[in-house]
Design a protein that fits this description.
heterodimer; A: mainly alpha; Arp2/3 complex 21 kDa subunit ARPC3; B: 275 residues; alpha+beta; Thrombin, subunit H; six-stranded antiparallel beta barrel; 5 helices; 29% strand; globular
Chain lengths: 167, 275
Protein backbone atom coordinates (compact mmCIF):
# COMPACT_ATOMS: atom_id res chain seq x y z
CA UNK A 1 0.00 0.00 0.00
CA UNK A 2 1.23 3.49 -0.82
CA UNK A 3 1.36 5.25 2.53
CA UNK A 4 1.39 8.79 1.17
CA UNK A 5 -1.98 8.20 -0.54
CA UNK A 6 -3.23 6.59 2.66
CA UNK A 7 -2.34 9.60 4.81
CA UNK A 8 -3.86 12.05 2.31
CA UNK A 9 -7.09 10.04 2.27
CA UNK A 10 -7.09 9.76 6.08
CA UNK A 11 -6.54 13.53 6.41
CA UNK A 12 -9.38 14.37 4.03
CA UNK A 13 -11.75 11.82 5.61
CA UNK A 14 -11.13 13.09 9.14
CA UNK A 15 -11.37 16.73 8.07
CA UNK A 16 -14.67 16.15 6.30
CA UNK A 17 -15.95 14.01 9.19
CA UNK A 18 -15.47 16.71 11.83
CA UNK A 19 -16.58 19.49 9.47
CA UNK A 20 -19.92 17.95 8.58
CA UNK A 21 -21.00 17.36 12.18
CA UNK A 22 -24.34 19.07 12.70
CA UNK A 23 -24.96 19.73 9.01
CA UNK A 24 -25.14 16.38 7.30
CA UNK A 25 -27.35 14.56 9.74
CA UNK A 26 -30.55 12.63 9.34
CA UNK A 27 -32.60 12.43 12.55
CA UNK A 28 -29.54 13.61 14.49
CA UNK A 29 -27.40 10.75 13.18
CA UNK A 30 -24.14 11.41 11.39
CA UNK A 31 -22.42 9.06 8.93
CA UNK A 32 -19.00 7.63 9.74
CA UNK A 33 -16.83 8.43 6.73
CA UNK A 34 -13.67 7.11 8.37
CA UNK A 35 -15.29 3.68 8.68
CA UNK A 36 -15.81 3.72 4.92
CA UNK A 37 -12.08 4.38 4.45
CA UNK A 38 -11.30 1.39 6.70
CA UNK A 39 -13.61 -0.81 4.61
CA UNK A 40 -12.06 0.50 1.39
CA UNK A 41 -8.58 -0.40 2.62
CA UNK A 42 -9.62 -3.78 3.99
CA UNK A 43 -11.52 -4.85 0.92
CA UNK A 44 -8.57 -4.13 -1.37
CA UNK A 45 -5.32 -4.31 0.59
CA UNK A 46 -3.04 -6.94 2.04
CA UNK A 47 -3.42 -8.09 5.64
CA UNK A 48 -0.48 -6.37 7.32
CA UNK A 49 -0.76 -2.85 5.86
CA UNK A 50 -4.54 -2.92 6.27
CA UNK A 51 -4.43 -3.89 9.96
CA UNK A 52 -1.75 -1.31 10.67
CA UNK A 53 -3.49 1.34 8.56
CA UNK A 54 -6.85 0.75 10.27
CA UNK A 55 -5.28 0.94 13.72
CA UNK A 56 -3.52 4.23 12.85
CA UNK A 57 -6.72 5.61 11.34
CA UNK A 58 -8.49 4.77 14.61
CA UNK A 59 -5.78 6.48 16.67
CA UNK A 60 -6.09 9.56 14.46
CA UNK A 61 -9.87 9.59 14.93
CA UNK A 62 -9.39 9.20 18.69
CA UNK A 63 -7.48 12.48 18.68
CA UNK A 64 -10.61 14.30 17.51
CA UNK A 65 -13.23 12.86 19.82
CA UNK A 66 -14.24 12.65 23.48
CA UNK A 67 -13.74 8.88 23.53
CA UNK A 68 -10.56 7.80 25.33
CA UNK A 69 -7.49 7.28 23.19
CA UNK A 70 -7.47 3.79 21.70
CA UNK A 71 -11.23 3.24 21.45
CA UNK A 72 -11.62 3.74 17.73
CA UNK A 73 -8.19 2.18 17.10
CA UNK A 74 -9.36 -1.13 18.59
CA UNK A 75 -12.78 -0.84 16.96
CA UNK A 76 -11.40 -0.25 13.46
CA UNK A 77 -8.91 -3.07 13.90
CA UNK A 78 -11.80 -5.44 14.57
CA UNK A 79 -13.71 -4.10 11.57
CA UNK A 80 -10.61 -4.51 9.37
CA UNK A 81 -10.13 -8.09 10.60
CA UNK A 82 -13.74 -8.86 9.76
CA UNK A 83 -13.58 -7.33 6.28
CA UNK A 84 -10.24 -9.02 5.56
CA UNK A 85 -11.81 -12.36 6.39
CA UNK A 86 -14.47 -11.77 3.75
CA UNK A 87 -12.05 -10.49 1.11
CA UNK A 88 -11.97 -13.71 -0.91
CA UNK A 89 -15.70 -14.27 -0.95
CA UNK A 90 -17.07 -10.86 -1.88
CA UNK A 91 -17.25 -9.04 -5.21
CA UNK A 92 -15.45 -5.90 -4.14
CA UNK A 93 -16.82 -3.61 -6.84
CA UNK A 94 -20.47 -4.37 -6.19
CA UNK A 95 -22.62 -1.72 -4.41
CA UNK A 96 -24.37 -4.42 -2.41
CA UNK A 97 -20.99 -5.53 -1.05
CA UNK A 98 -20.27 -1.95 -0.02
CA UNK A 99 -23.66 -1.59 1.62
CA UNK A 100 -23.50 -4.87 3.53
CA UNK A 101 -19.88 -4.42 4.68
CA UNK A 102 -20.58 -0.86 5.85
CA UNK A 103 -23.73 -1.96 7.67
CA UNK A 104 -21.96 -4.88 9.36
CA UNK A 105 -18.91 -2.73 10.13
CA UNK A 106 -21.12 0.00 11.57
CA UNK A 107 -23.03 -2.47 13.73
CA UNK A 108 -19.72 -3.97 14.90
CA UNK A 109 -18.54 -0.45 15.87
CA UNK A 110 -21.86 0.09 17.65
CA UNK A 111 -21.52 -3.14 19.63
CA UNK A 112 -17.91 -2.42 20.65
CA UNK A 113 -18.66 1.18 21.64
CA UNK A 114 -21.82 0.19 23.51
CA UNK A 115 -19.86 -2.36 25.54
CA UNK A 116 -17.20 0.29 26.08
CA UNK A 117 -19.95 2.68 27.20
CA UNK A 118 -21.05 0.19 29.87
CA UNK A 119 -17.60 -0.68 31.19
CA UNK A 120 -15.79 2.67 31.08
CA UNK A 121 -18.09 4.60 33.48
CA UNK A 122 -17.89 1.68 35.93
CA UNK A 123 -14.11 2.01 36.03
CA UNK A 124 -13.72 5.78 35.80
CA UNK A 125 -16.99 7.22 37.10
CA UNK A 126 -20.20 8.28 35.37
CA UNK A 127 -19.05 11.88 34.86
CA UNK A 128 -16.60 10.72 32.18
CA UNK A 129 -19.59 10.29 29.91
CA UNK A 130 -20.08 7.55 27.43
CA UNK A 131 -21.33 7.12 23.93
CA UNK A 132 -23.08 4.15 22.49
CA UNK A 133 -26.78 3.65 22.29
CA UNK A 134 -29.11 4.18 19.43
CA UNK A 135 -27.03 6.94 17.77
CA UNK A 136 -24.40 4.42 16.71
CA UNK A 137 -26.87 2.07 15.12
CA UNK A 138 -28.71 4.77 13.20
CA UNK A 139 -25.29 6.06 12.17
CA UNK A 140 -24.48 2.53 10.88
CA UNK A 141 -27.55 2.57 8.65
CA UNK A 142 -26.77 6.07 7.38
CA UNK A 143 -23.16 5.09 6.67
CA UNK A 144 -24.31 1.96 4.85
CA UNK A 145 -26.63 4.01 2.65
CA UNK A 146 -23.75 6.30 1.69
CA UNK A 147 -21.30 3.42 1.24
CA UNK A 148 -22.09 2.53 -2.40
CA UNK A 149 -21.46 6.17 -3.40
CA UNK A 150 -18.34 6.82 -1.33
CA UNK A 151 -16.78 3.39 -1.84
CA UNK A 152 -17.74 3.50 -5.51
CA UNK A 153 -15.73 6.72 -5.86
CA UNK A 154 -12.82 5.36 -3.81
CA UNK A 155 -12.72 2.16 -5.87
CA UNK A 156 -12.06 4.32 -8.94
CA UNK A 157 -9.02 5.77 -7.18
CA UNK A 158 -7.56 2.53 -5.87
CA UNK A 159 -4.65 2.60 -8.30
CA UNK A 160 -3.24 5.53 -6.33
CA UNK A 161 -2.90 3.20 -3.34
CA UNK A 162 -0.97 0.48 -5.20
CA UNK A 163 -2.61 -2.29 -3.22
CA UNK A 164 -0.75 -5.57 -3.30
CA UNK A 165 -2.54 -8.57 -1.97
CA UNK A 166 -0.92 -11.73 -0.73
CA UNK A 167 -1.47 -14.76 -2.93
CA UNK B 1 8.90 -8.17 8.58
CA UNK B 2 8.04 -11.84 9.05
CA UNK B 3 4.45 -12.85 9.68
CA UNK B 4 5.16 -13.89 13.29
CA UNK B 5 6.98 -10.68 14.13
CA UNK B 6 4.18 -8.59 12.66
CA UNK B 7 1.56 -10.53 14.61
CA UNK B 8 3.48 -10.05 17.86
CA UNK B 9 4.03 -6.36 17.27
CA UNK B 10 0.43 -5.84 16.23
CA UNK B 11 -0.98 -7.70 19.22
CA UNK B 12 1.18 -5.40 21.37
CA UNK B 13 -0.27 -2.33 19.63
CA UNK B 14 -3.84 -3.52 20.07
CA UNK B 15 -3.15 -4.31 23.73
CA UNK B 16 -1.95 -0.73 24.21
CA UNK B 17 -5.14 0.43 22.47
CA UNK B 18 -7.30 -1.68 24.80
CA UNK B 19 -5.42 -0.36 27.83
CA UNK B 20 -5.92 3.21 26.63
CA UNK B 21 -9.60 2.79 25.90
CA UNK B 22 -10.56 0.89 29.06
CA UNK B 23 -7.98 1.05 31.83
CA UNK B 24 -5.87 4.21 31.65
CA UNK B 25 -7.71 7.15 33.34
CA UNK B 26 -9.15 9.82 31.05
CA UNK B 27 -6.95 12.46 32.71
CA UNK B 28 -3.94 10.74 31.09
CA UNK B 29 -5.35 9.73 27.71
CA UNK B 30 -7.08 13.11 27.40
CA UNK B 31 -3.75 14.92 27.36
CA UNK B 32 -3.02 13.71 23.86
CA UNK B 33 -6.41 14.72 22.55
CA UNK B 34 -7.54 18.10 21.27
CA UNK B 35 -3.98 19.25 20.53
CA UNK B 36 -3.87 18.67 16.80
CA UNK B 37 -7.39 19.68 15.76
CA UNK B 38 -5.96 22.80 14.16
CA UNK B 39 -4.21 20.58 11.56
CA UNK B 40 -7.60 19.72 10.09
CA UNK B 41 -8.62 23.37 9.73
CA UNK B 42 -7.58 23.62 6.04
CA UNK B 43 -10.08 20.86 5.21
CA UNK B 44 -12.66 21.36 7.97
CA UNK B 45 -12.94 25.16 7.54
CA UNK B 46 -14.01 25.28 3.88
CA UNK B 47 -16.15 22.12 4.14
CA UNK B 48 -17.95 23.48 7.21
CA UNK B 49 -18.46 26.81 5.45
CA UNK B 50 -19.97 25.15 2.38
CA UNK B 51 -22.09 22.82 4.55
CA UNK B 52 -23.36 25.82 6.52
CA UNK B 53 -24.24 27.63 3.30
CA UNK B 54 -26.21 24.65 2.01
CA UNK B 55 -27.87 24.23 5.39
CA UNK B 56 -28.91 27.88 5.52
CA UNK B 57 -30.47 27.54 2.10
CA UNK B 58 -32.11 24.14 2.30
CA UNK B 59 -31.73 22.90 5.87
CA UNK B 60 -34.41 22.77 8.53
CA UNK B 61 -34.72 25.47 11.21
CA UNK B 62 -35.55 24.57 14.83
CA UNK B 63 -39.32 24.85 15.30
CA UNK B 64 -39.03 27.61 17.88
CA UNK B 65 -37.14 29.76 15.41
CA UNK B 66 -39.13 29.10 12.25
CA UNK B 67 -39.66 32.42 10.51
CA UNK B 68 -40.87 33.59 7.15
CA UNK B 69 -37.94 35.61 5.84
CA UNK B 70 -34.51 37.02 6.64
CA UNK B 71 -35.79 40.16 8.42
CA UNK B 72 -38.04 38.08 10.62
CA UNK B 73 -35.08 35.84 11.36
CA UNK B 74 -33.03 38.81 12.50
CA UNK B 75 -35.90 40.10 14.63
CA UNK B 76 -36.47 36.69 16.16
CA UNK B 77 -32.77 36.41 16.92
CA UNK B 78 -32.66 39.88 18.50
CA UNK B 79 -35.83 39.12 20.43
CA UNK B 80 -34.27 35.92 21.75
CA UNK B 81 -31.14 37.81 22.79
CA UNK B 82 -33.20 40.50 24.50
CA UNK B 83 -35.28 37.98 26.39
CA UNK B 84 -32.11 36.37 27.63
CA UNK B 85 -30.69 39.72 28.65
CA UNK B 86 -33.89 40.55 30.54
CA UNK B 87 -33.93 37.20 32.35
CA UNK B 88 -30.34 37.67 33.27
CA UNK B 89 -30.81 41.28 34.37
CA UNK B 90 -33.91 40.47 36.41
CA UNK B 91 -32.14 37.74 38.31
CA UNK B 92 -29.18 40.02 38.79
CA UNK B 93 -31.42 42.82 39.98
CA UNK B 94 -33.00 40.60 42.65
CA UNK B 95 -29.57 39.60 43.78
CA UNK B 96 -28.29 43.17 43.90
CA UNK B 97 -31.05 44.18 46.21
CA UNK B 98 -29.51 41.82 48.75
CA UNK B 99 -25.83 42.10 47.97
CA UNK B 100 -24.71 45.51 46.80
CA UNK B 101 -21.18 44.61 45.86
CA UNK B 102 -22.49 42.24 43.18
CA UNK B 103 -23.12 45.40 41.14
CA UNK B 104 -19.76 45.18 39.43
CA UNK B 105 -20.76 41.93 37.80
CA UNK B 106 -23.50 43.62 35.78
CA UNK B 107 -21.42 44.15 32.72
CA UNK B 108 -21.57 43.24 29.11
CA UNK B 109 -21.01 39.59 28.43
CA UNK B 110 -18.08 40.39 26.18
CA UNK B 111 -16.28 41.90 29.15
CA UNK B 112 -16.08 38.38 30.53
CA UNK B 113 -16.09 36.26 27.39
CA UNK B 114 -14.18 36.31 24.13
CA UNK B 115 -15.44 34.95 20.80
CA UNK B 116 -13.42 31.97 19.56
CA UNK B 117 -13.90 30.19 16.21
CA UNK B 118 -14.96 26.56 15.95
CA UNK B 119 -12.87 24.10 13.92
CA UNK B 120 -15.34 21.25 13.83
CA UNK B 121 -17.40 18.74 15.73
CA UNK B 122 -16.68 15.36 17.26
CA UNK B 123 -15.33 12.60 15.02
CA UNK B 124 -17.61 10.04 16.72
CA UNK B 125 -21.29 9.90 15.88
CA UNK B 126 -22.20 9.11 19.48
CA UNK B 127 -20.35 11.94 21.26
CA UNK B 128 -21.07 15.66 21.15
CA UNK B 129 -18.21 18.12 21.34
CA UNK B 130 -16.67 20.99 19.42
CA UNK B 131 -13.00 21.71 18.89
CA UNK B 132 -12.13 25.38 19.02
CA UNK B 133 -9.36 27.51 17.57
CA UNK B 134 -6.38 28.53 19.67
CA UNK B 135 -6.87 32.01 21.13
CA UNK B 136 -4.94 34.33 23.38
CA UNK B 137 -6.33 35.85 26.55
CA UNK B 138 -8.88 33.12 27.22
CA UNK B 139 -8.97 30.56 29.99
CA UNK B 140 -8.88 27.12 28.36
CA UNK B 141 -8.53 25.14 31.56
CA UNK B 142 -10.81 22.09 31.88
CA UNK B 143 -14.22 22.76 33.40
CA UNK B 144 -14.56 26.36 32.24
CA UNK B 145 -18.00 27.14 30.81
CA UNK B 146 -18.49 28.03 27.16
CA UNK B 147 -21.54 29.91 25.91
CA UNK B 148 -23.04 31.38 22.76
CA UNK B 149 -25.62 34.10 22.15
CA UNK B 150 -28.41 31.58 22.68
CA UNK B 151 -27.22 30.24 26.01
CA UNK B 152 -24.91 27.65 27.49
CA UNK B 153 -22.89 25.52 25.04
CA UNK B 154 -20.89 23.28 27.36
CA UNK B 155 -17.67 23.06 29.32
CA UNK B 156 -14.08 22.75 28.29
CA UNK B 157 -12.32 19.41 28.63
CA UNK B 158 -8.65 18.58 28.07
CA UNK B 159 -7.25 20.22 24.96
CA UNK B 160 -9.26 22.85 23.17
CA UNK B 161 -12.42 20.77 23.14
CA UNK B 162 -15.83 21.78 24.42
CA UNK B 163 -18.05 19.02 25.74
CA UNK B 164 -21.58 20.05 24.74
CA UNK B 165 -24.44 20.14 27.25
CA UNK B 166 -26.22 17.58 25.08
CA UNK B 167 -23.39 15.02 25.31
CA UNK B 168 -24.46 11.90 27.19
CA UNK B 169 -24.21 12.25 30.97
CA UNK B 170 -23.40 15.96 30.98
CA UNK B 171 -25.19 17.19 34.12
CA UNK B 172 -26.26 20.70 35.10
CA UNK B 173 -28.72 22.04 37.64
CA UNK B 174 -31.31 24.36 36.20
CA UNK B 175 -34.55 26.16 36.86
CA UNK B 176 -37.75 26.32 34.84
CA UNK B 177 -39.44 29.53 33.82
CA UNK B 178 -41.42 31.13 31.03
CA UNK B 179 -42.21 34.45 29.44
CA UNK B 180 -45.75 35.72 29.88
CA UNK B 181 -46.73 39.14 28.50
CA UNK B 182 -43.12 40.23 28.53
CA UNK B 183 -42.63 39.16 32.14
CA UNK B 184 -40.28 36.42 33.29
CA UNK B 185 -42.14 33.95 35.51
CA UNK B 186 -40.10 31.40 37.46
CA UNK B 187 -41.82 28.03 37.80
CA UNK B 188 -41.46 26.77 41.37
CA UNK B 189 -40.21 23.18 41.21
CA UNK B 190 -37.48 21.26 43.02
CA UNK B 191 -34.19 21.96 41.21
CA UNK B 192 -34.19 19.97 37.97
CA UNK B 193 -31.06 18.02 37.15
CA UNK B 194 -30.62 18.32 33.39
CA UNK B 195 -28.76 15.38 31.80
CA UNK B 196 -27.41 15.30 28.27
CA UNK B 197 -28.74 12.31 26.37
CA UNK B 198 -27.01 12.81 23.02
CA UNK B 199 -28.61 13.53 19.66
CA UNK B 200 -28.90 17.22 20.50
CA UNK B 201 -31.19 16.78 23.51
CA UNK B 202 -31.26 16.76 27.31
CA UNK B 203 -33.58 15.12 29.81
CA UNK B 204 -34.89 15.94 33.28
CA UNK B 205 -36.11 12.92 35.21
CA UNK B 206 -35.78 13.87 38.87
CA UNK B 207 -39.17 15.61 39.10
CA UNK B 208 -42.43 13.85 39.90
CA UNK B 209 -45.43 14.36 37.64
CA UNK B 210 -46.91 16.47 40.44
CA UNK B 211 -43.79 18.69 40.47
CA UNK B 212 -43.86 18.98 36.71
CA UNK B 213 -47.56 19.68 36.23
CA UNK B 214 -46.95 23.39 35.56
CA UNK B 215 -44.24 22.75 32.98
CA UNK B 216 -45.28 23.05 29.36
CA UNK B 217 -43.51 22.75 26.02
CA UNK B 218 -41.52 25.89 25.10
CA UNK B 219 -40.85 26.76 28.76
CA UNK B 220 -37.25 27.77 29.34
CA UNK B 221 -34.63 26.04 31.45
CA UNK B 222 -32.00 28.40 32.80
CA UNK B 223 -28.78 27.84 34.72
CA UNK B 224 -29.19 27.74 38.50
CA UNK B 225 -25.97 25.99 39.45
CA UNK B 226 -23.89 28.17 41.74
CA UNK B 227 -21.31 25.49 42.53
CA UNK B 228 -20.01 24.85 39.02
CA UNK B 229 -20.90 28.03 37.14
CA UNK B 230 -19.93 31.65 37.89
CA UNK B 231 -22.55 34.22 38.86
CA UNK B 232 -22.35 35.88 35.48
CA UNK B 233 -23.89 32.74 33.96
CA UNK B 234 -26.73 32.24 36.44
CA UNK B 235 -30.00 32.75 34.58
CA UNK B 236 -28.49 32.05 31.17
CA UNK B 237 -30.55 29.79 28.98
CA UNK B 238 -29.85 26.05 28.79
CA UNK B 239 -32.71 25.18 26.46
CA UNK B 240 -36.44 24.94 25.97
CA UNK B 241 -38.84 22.18 26.97
CA UNK B 242 -39.81 20.03 24.02
CA UNK B 243 -42.07 17.49 25.73
CA UNK B 244 -43.32 16.37 29.14
CA UNK B 245 -44.58 12.84 29.71
CA UNK B 246 -44.51 10.10 32.36
CA UNK B 247 -41.07 8.51 32.66
CA UNK B 248 -41.11 4.99 31.15
CA UNK B 249 -40.66 2.48 33.95
CA UNK B 250 -41.26 5.09 36.70
CA UNK B 251 -44.80 6.22 36.14
CA UNK B 252 -44.80 8.68 39.05
CA UNK B 253 -41.89 10.65 37.61
CA UNK B 254 -41.87 12.97 34.62
CA UNK B 255 -39.59 12.74 31.62
CA UNK B 256 -38.97 16.26 30.39
CA UNK B 257 -37.05 16.56 27.13
CA UNK B 258 -35.14 19.82 26.74
CA UNK B 259 -33.43 21.05 23.58
CA UNK B 260 -31.10 24.00 23.06
CA UNK B 261 -32.53 26.85 20.96
CA UNK B 262 -29.91 26.26 18.30
CA UNK B 263 -28.14 23.18 17.02
CA UNK B 264 -24.97 23.47 19.08
CA UNK B 265 -23.03 21.26 16.67
CA UNK B 266 -23.53 23.85 13.93
CA UNK B 267 -22.00 26.77 15.81
CA UNK B 268 -19.20 28.58 14.01
CA UNK B 269 -18.18 30.66 17.01
CA UNK B 270 -18.46 30.28 20.79
CA UNK B 271 -17.72 32.55 23.75
CA UNK B 272 -14.93 31.43 26.07
CA UNK B 273 -14.15 33.04 29.46
CA UNK B 274 -11.36 35.57 29.48
CA UNK B 275 -8.41 35.05 31.80
Amino acid sequence: MRWLSYFILAYIALGVQIALVGFFEVRDSAPNLVLLVVIFLAVNGGREPVLLGSFILGVMQDLFTLHPLGTWAVTYTLVAMFVLSTQEIVYREHPLTHFSLALTGGILCGVVLTIHGWIYPLLHGPSTGHGGGIALFTSAIYTAVLAPIVLGLLQRMKRAFAFRRRL
Amino acid sequence: MSQIRFNQAFIGLVAVGVLGSFIIPPSITGRAQGKVDILLKPIAGPVRGIAGMFHDRWGSTPSSLKVSNQNDAQLASENEDLKQQITFLKLKFDELKLVEEERKRLGKLLDYFKPVGVIGGDASADRESLSIMPASGVDLSPGKPVICNDGLVGRLVEGRRVRLITDRDFIITGQFGRWEKGQWISIPTPKPSVHGIGRGAMRVENLTLEDAKQIKPDDWVIIADTTDYPDILQGRKIGQVESVRPLPGKALFAEIIVKPSVNLRQLSEVLVMRK
